[in-house]
């Protein structure tokens, strides 16, 4: 057996191992999610109802239409919010595991049938860049956002999508999509947006794949030399990824919240309408900022030998 055949056999073995690990995690994730939904998540709906009542009382006291102990009610509101969040976490973790395991399983099947592309192989430089961009995605969401409450739920203006798009422009759809998905999902899991984590993982991965496909699959951005073509490809790729998000985020969010989280349809509809606005603003900011960052970083990364010509 020559070296090439040995390498192909090793890659097939890795693909089957990835497939098996993904399948096991998928089954475990589904079982855990079902258990968490029937236990702690059901308790969170009761806590959420009580929280809404307390919020209404606090608002009435502030408006002067009701008398009561504002300080005690505010403390109770904070206590219920923390309790609801802790009760929602197990179900969100289970759903996130299901999404991640499904990705591993699909990737294992793809690698076993088609083979692994060179641009998708891990190396120290690519892993380090993906990790850095995932961290920037987390920071852009967790620390640079404006919350908009809608009943017991909320949406937000944030800068996380900027770095999701930038990651796909720099690293390609696969690694860029993973960086965005992981960074933004961790941002959800560690904040009050914990129930949105599974949806976030799916959508941010799709944004990365679309941006990477347009930038590197259609325009071959990494090998482009002409300045106008680089700028056009950058903006076009960022626009396509964000256009997908503007449509998909409210739509997927509505069905996700209604059928997986059990949010009442009127609240889910209101969230979808507001999400259309916030997602649109986030998209405009992401297209402009990510394009500017990429065009500024590209020469510096080339000079330092860190630029990936995908």
Protein described:
The protein has 310 residues and is mostly helical. It is built from seven helices and two strands, in the order αααββαααα. It has helices spanning 3-63, 70-113, 124-142, 160-189, 197-218, 227-260, 265-304, and strands at residues 145-150, 153-158. The chain has a two-stranded antiparallel ribbon. It is globular and about 80 Å long.
Shape: globular
What structural class should be given to the helix and strand makeup? mainly alpha
**Count of helical stretches:** 7
Fraction in beta strands: under 5%
Number of strands: 2
Radius of gyration: 22 Å
| Low-pLDDT ranges | none
Distance between the termini: 31 Å
Short structural description:
The protein has 310 residues and is mostly helical. It has helices at 3-63, 70-113, 124-142, 160-189, 197-218, 227-260, 265-304; strands at 145-150, 153-158.
Give descriptors for this structure.
single chain, 310 residues, mainly alpha, globular
Layout of helices and strands:
Elements: H1 3-63, H2 70-113, H3 124-142, E1 145-150, E2 153-158, H4 160-189, H5 197-218, H6 227-260, H7 265-304
Helix pairs in contact: 1-2, 2-5, 3-4, 4-5, 4-6, 4-7, 5-6, 6-7
């Amino acid at each position: 057996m020559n070296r090439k055949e040995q390498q192909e056999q090793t890659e097939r073995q890795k693909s089957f191992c990835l497939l098996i690990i993904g399948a096991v995690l998928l089954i475990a994730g589904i079982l855990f999610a079902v258990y968490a939904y029937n236990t702690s998540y059901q308790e969170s709906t009761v806590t959420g109802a009580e929280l809404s009542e307390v919020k209404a009382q606090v608002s009435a006291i502030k408006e002067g239409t009701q008398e009561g102990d504002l300080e005690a009610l505010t403390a109770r509101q904070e206590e219920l919010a923390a309790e609801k969040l802790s009760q929602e976490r197990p179900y969100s973790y289970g759903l996130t595991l299901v999404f991640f395991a499904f990705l591993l399983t699909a990737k294992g099947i793809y690698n076993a049938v088609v083979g692994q592309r060179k641009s998708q192989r891990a190396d120290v430089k690519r892993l380090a860049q993906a990790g850095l961009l995932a961290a920037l995605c987390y920071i852009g969401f967790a620390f640079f956002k404006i919350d908009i409450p809608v009943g017991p739920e909320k949406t937000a203006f944030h800068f996380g999508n900027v770095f999701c798009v930038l990651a796909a422009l720099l690293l390609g759809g696969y690694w860029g999509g993973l960086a965005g998905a992981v960074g933004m999902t961790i941002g959800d899991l560690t904040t009050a947006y914990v129930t949105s984590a599974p949806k976030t993982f799916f959508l941010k991965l799709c944004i990365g794949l679309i941006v990477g496909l347009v930038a590197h699959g259609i325009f071959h951005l990494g090998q482009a030399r002409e300045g106008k073509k680089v700028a056009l490809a950058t903006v076009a790729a960022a626009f396509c990824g964000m256009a997908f998000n503007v449509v998909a985020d409210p739509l997927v969010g509505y069905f996700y919240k209604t059928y997986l989280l059990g949010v009442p349809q009127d609240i889910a509809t209101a969230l979808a309408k507001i999400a259309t606005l916030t997602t649109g603003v986030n998209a405009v900011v992401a297209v402009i900022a990510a394009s500017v960052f990429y065009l500024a970083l590209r020469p510096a990364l080339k000079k330092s030998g860190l630029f990936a010509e995908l």
